[in-house]
Amino acid sequence: MANGKASVAVAARGVSKIFGSGSNEVRALDDVSLDIRTNEFFTLLGPSGCGKTTLLRLVAGFESPTRGSIFLDGEDITAEPPNRRPVNTVFQSYALFPHLTVAQNVAFGLEMLGRPRKEISDTVARMLALVRMEQLANRATSQISGGQQQRVALARALAPRPKVLLLDEPLSALDLKLRKEMQIELKRLQTETGITFIFVTHDQEEALTMSDRIAVMSAGRILQIGSPEEIYNHPAGRFVASFIGESNFFEGTVHNVRGNSVEIRMPSGDMVTAHSLSGKPEGSVTFAVRPEHVRLEQFGTSGTLAATVTDSVYFGTDTHCHLELDGGERLVARLQNKVSGGPGYEKGMRAGVRFDDGAAQVLAD
Amino acid sequence: MPETGPHTPATARRRADFSVQKMPGFAAIAIACFVILYAPIITLVIYSFNAGQSVALWQGFSVKWYYIALENRAVQEAALRSLIIAASASAISSVVATMAAIGTTRTGAFKGRTAIYLLINQPLMVPEIVTAVALLIFFASIKVATGYGGLGYLIVAHAAFCVPFAYLPIRARLEGMDATLELAAADLYATPWLAFRRITLPLLAPGIAAGAMLAFVISLDDVIITEFVKSAGQDTLPTYMLGQLRRAITPEVNAISTALLALTLVLLSVFFVLTRARESRSD
Fold first, then answer.
1. Is A285 in a helix, a strand, or coil?
2. Which of A156, A283, B146, B150 is the most buried (most CB within 10 A)?
3. Average of pLDDT values for A259-272?
4. Best of B188, B275, B278 to disrupt the A interface by mutation (most A CBs within 10 Å)?
5. pTM of the model
6. CATH 3.40.50.300 applies to domain A8-238
């Protein structure tokens, strides 16, 4: 690990975590390896039970892996207890100490590190200012709102200047408006402090708006790691394509491959050009197209797929047009609404379907 | 009320019918229960102020039996002994119970946890007279072997049967406490000892106080085990009173009982005020 890769903050190598034993055995993490870069906002995204929180707890030291190792700045910390890891956590439940004031909560980590009193009070004041909680420093933690508790939990975890900040679904208890504010706030804090953030969430929108890179997890495995754009525009597999955003799925057979560009023949005989992430796909494949990358044109226009509108649902900013291709496949097109009204496709109408250039994505499974 | 809908009176009446307070005999049963619970105690307290020798025949008000009890050397010594034993047993059992509670709630599920619960709560289940006889025989052999005959035996015996009483409130408090708080302390560089002292202990304190107080009261009140384990001249207040009853009963016994009752009430109120203050502060 320590071969001069200074830009890697946290690394996992072949990490597995098995809970229980025998017939009750649960494989929470299955041979996971990844590198999280210094100063990046890294998100572990996946449905509940996918192992993302377990991975976070392994980095924090609350659990130890059944197999594999965890590295921090190139150093193996697998055997270190949580109090000896320069890593702090923002808990889902915040876990503020109820018998201490806001300022005492923020000071706790620094006190445990044995910092001088002057330094502690200065840092506490600076941290409370950072999260805009100066006025409430002497309040009991039970006397402040959920959003304020969230800020205190953040200040408490940031005060000792950890090498990595771990955030376990910290926004899930907040209402929508507060959650949006805190998303921006978190991104600001990460930029201002320059600390590596590892953020766990099941909310794809949170992941897309805040992250530098995202790891999509399912059933204890990492399915894809990439920037929000890569993950969204070029999902590697069916799970990623359907978990992040919505997708229309189609089957076809590979006709011709040129670099990343794959010509696919659909069962109806129509040809579609799709983008392939890696490898040389052959035989029958699945490809995905985002609903917003589907265009509707005059029925019969050359190069379009013949379809019938089965339903049209108005959503304010856009209209969702449900269609059935003449080959039998169903899909949804998301069409932007104009001041003048909707796109004008009604149930039962015929239309020609066209995918935007590069919108069709070949999936690995 | 003119704007009341047609259904409202009926609904209100039906709701009243389901109220426990409206059921026949509710008041009578409640009064009977309270009379049975408190009439004997009130009678005992009243006759502790009797001017005469009788515990059943009122002969005028006087506090002379309190003076007599207070000046009685045997009562003084028994009272002091009771307090020493209760305080020691309460201190020992709450420390042991705190450790047991942490051991049973802050570990993952392990084999034999139910067995451990049963073992800890043994004094609640084994008939006290059995424990008393067992301790009598066990301590007798230790006495023979070591020659020690002090209060230690009573303190150890009391501490042992007080453990489950101290354990229950402490465990309840620990189970109600968010275990994430201890993780958070460890995450913020607290060693296990510092996490306990700075986070767990302060939050657990009301539970420990409740457990210690319960243990104190239980120890103060014990007759059976004390009667079997004590050596000659080691009477506690309850065993002294029992001894007095075998001779002539005077209101002195009422006076001592009333004093014990008052002490218990004071302990309970102090504890209640303390826990209330803590709760309202953390609300």
1. strand
2. A156
3. 88
4. B188
5. 0.80
6. yes
